[in-house]
Specification:
rod-shaped; coiled coil; 97% helix; mainly alpha
Length: 124
């Protein structure tokens, strides 16, 4: 029984020796909670900043896509303008050719009239 009491006493002394250390740790808990609250607040601020930055990036990407689309459309318009200018050149050349043919036909008509004039007055 004395032995049992001695062991029990030794165990209690060991536990009692741990009490000051446990009290120190317990005293740190409010400080750690405060520190944790600060860390959480800072994390919330950082998340908010990241979201703002992300929104700025999204807006910039949209702007860049709009600019890219305008440049693409501009390039398409430039190609169409080149085609129209080429067509215009072709049409001008064709019109010039047709005018020269009309002039030639008019000359032929005048010549035919000249040829037919003496025959018209001639009686059979």
């Amino acid at each position: 029984m004395k032995n049992r009491i001695g062991r029990r006493n030794a165990k209690l002394e060991t536990e009692n020796a741990e009490i000051p250390e446990l009290r120190k740790k317990l005293a740190k808990i409010p400080k750690l909670r405060k520190k944790l609250a600060k860390v959480k607040a800072r994390n919330a601020e950082l998340i908010k900043e990241m979201m703002k930055e992300d929104n700025r990036h999204v807006a910039r990407i949209k702007l860049l896509k709009a600019i890219e689309e305008k440049y693409t459309r501009r390039a398409e318009f430039e190609v169409k303008i080149e085609e129209l200018e080429k067509n215009r050149t072709d049409i001008v050349a064709e019109n010039t050719e047709l005018r020269s043919r009309v002039v030639k036909l008019e000359q032929d008509i005048v010549e035919l009239k000249k040829e037919l004039e003496p025959k018209k007055n001639h009686k059979f």
